[in-house]
Write a structure and sequence with these properties.
There is one protein chain. Helices cover 75% and strands 0% of the residues. The chain is rod-shaped. With 504 residues, the protein is mostly helical.
């Protein structure tokens, strides 16, 4: 009876009738359904009959029964086995009602909408099923994306990529690996993908991980694909970091878009001076090259580069470095270029003096006096140095250059050094005759010379100094008093002079 009823229901195609018999309160619903599945649907070849029956089961919300029904239609009935919508419905119903069946349907069926079904599987957390769908239909980029994003198994993803060996697959794997900090693995994958597009992230991660060798391999590949300034700049730096100086030199000698100056600065900051030397030399940055050569201990080369740079800042840097290393000959070459600039003189002098290199400083200034740009400050400072460290040379220096020194500074230096003869000499040259006489009277042993005294005393402005001189001669050189009086006779108040001697 149920067989006949099932046949009738299928052929009648009446939704209302189906609704009635599939009600939950129908005690005969189960045997009727069995016959519908086993007999009626097996016999029919009418698509409309199938459609109405399936809708009826869906309306009645009988997913498990619907699965049985669809299995009968799609799997057992060869007429409808390739029906796309029915295959889709079978898999989707299984996703909703019985997940254990989904994988079997995915593998057995061939004519369902794979991308849509896979997306639905993912949204229902059926990741292995989604992967199987993509793999089956060779949507390999989507398949590996599932392994990476949802299953989160990079080992499986790598195995899958090896089997596929497609650039797009390798590229997705590489990006996942670099996000995980797997630099070597990621670079291998990027190279297999021939994909330079993620160079910013690769450089960043490789730098953080100090994976310079791997970075070189990646950037070499990237450079072939895209002649980006950033790529070529980082490649130059990576060569430096790996100490591949021959490769670096070859690279920058050929056409490139690298920012050589920036790379050189980075190398210098990180004390990679051999690389910095190559880079600065390439762009003729002699200022930086000079300083770099100092760090490499090539002071002669540093001086030669400083000469080409011809910059005060560079001259100072190299000079100070040479002083620190006691390379005084080279320091002098640099120093001459500095001391001829008045505003730089004090700093250089202090640098020498603070380190106790007085002799070397004197030699530098002596050598610089003949320079066409020699200025008053040089002559003055040398005089002060002589007063402190080489007083025996002071007189000769003043005799030659008294007109080219700063009077107050040198006078003060002579006084501090007790160079009374030199002090008198300067007072005379600067026509400060009163001070000259007072100095000779105060320090006769060192400063007094008879003829000089008589010559200057006749030029003084202060008349009182005449009588001071008479006192001085009475005490110091009484036998020469007459000679002094002969010089002063025309200028003395004779009455006062006589009274002066009477009192004396």
């Amino acid at each position: 009876m149920f067989k006949s009823e099932a046949r009738y229901l299928v052929r009648r195609k009446d939704p209302a009738l189906w609704e009635h018999v599939l009600r939950e309160d129908n005690q005969y619903r189960r045997p009727l359904i069995d016959q519908v599945i086993q007999t009626a649907l097996a016999e029919t070849q009418d698509p409309e009959e199938i459609s109405v029956t399936v809708k009826a089961f869906m309306t009645a919300d009988l997913p498990n029964n619907l699965i049985e029904l669809l299995e009968k239609i799609v799997i057992d009935n060869s007429v409808f086995s390739e029906h796309r919508n029915l295959q889709n419905l079978l898999i989707l119903t299984a996703i909703k009602a019985d997940r254990t069946r989904v994988m079997d349907y995915i593998n057995r069926l061939e004519n369902y909408d794979a991308p849509d079904i896979a997306n639905i599987a993912i949204s229902n957390q059926l990741y292995e099923e989604a992967f199987s769908i993509y793999k089956k239909f060779e949507v390999n980029t989507s398949a590996i994306q599932v392994l990476i994003d949802h299953i989160k198994n990079l080992d499986r993803a790598y195995e899958f990529a090896e089997r596929c060996n497609e650039p797009g697959v390798w590229s997705l794997l590489a990006n996942a690996q670099i996000r995980q900090g797997l630099v070597k693995e990621a670079v291998d994958s990027f190279i297999k993908a021939d994909d330079p597009t993620s160079y910013l992230e690769v450089v960043n991660v490789a730098t953080q991980n100090q994976s310079w060798e791997d970075l070189v391999r990646y950037l070499q590949m990237a450079r072939k694909k895209a002649r980006e300034t950033f790529v070529e700049t980082e490649l130059a730096f990576a060569y430096a970091k790996t100490n591949r100086l021959a490769d670096l030199e070859e690279f920058i000698s050929s056409p490139n878009h690298a920012q050589i100056q920036a790379v050189g600065d980075r190398c210098f900051e990180q004390e990679m001076y051999d690389a910095a030397k190559i880079l600065f030399n390439n762009i003729s940055n002699y200022a930086k090259l000079a300083v770099t050569l100092c760090h490499l201990g090539d002071y002669q080369g540093a001086v030669d580069s400083a000469r080409k740079a011809n910059s005060t800042k560079t001259w100072k840097e190299i000079c100070f470095a040479c002083i620190d290393k006691q390379e005084f000959r080279l320091a002098q070459i640099c120093g001459i270029q500095i001391v001829v600039q008045a505003e730089e003189l004090e700093e250089l002098i202090n640098y020498y003096q603070n380190r106790g290199y007085f002799e070397e400083l004197i030699q530098l200034l002596e050598a610089a006096l003949g320079h066409e740009r020699a200025h008053i400050g040089m002559f003055t400072e040398l005089a002060i140095l002589y007063s402190k460290y080489k007083p025996q040379k002071m007189r000769e220096h003043l005799e030659l250059f008294w007109s080219r020194v700063r009077k107050p500074k040198v006078l003060r230096a002579c006084e501090q050094a007790h160079l009374w003869s030199e002090l008198v000499f300067l007072y005379d040259k600067y026509e400060e005759f009163d001070n000259a006489i007072l100095t000779m009277i105060a320090h006769p042993t060192e400063a007094w010379r008879e003829n000089h005294f008589k010559d200057i005393i006749s030029k003084v402005a202060n008349v009182e100094l005449y009588y001071k001189a008479i006192d001085f001669y009475l005490e110091f050189k009484p036998m020469l008093l007459n000679d002094l009086l002969l010089v002063l006779s025309a200028r003395l108040d004779h009455t006062r002079a006589v009274n002066y001697f009477i009192k004396g």
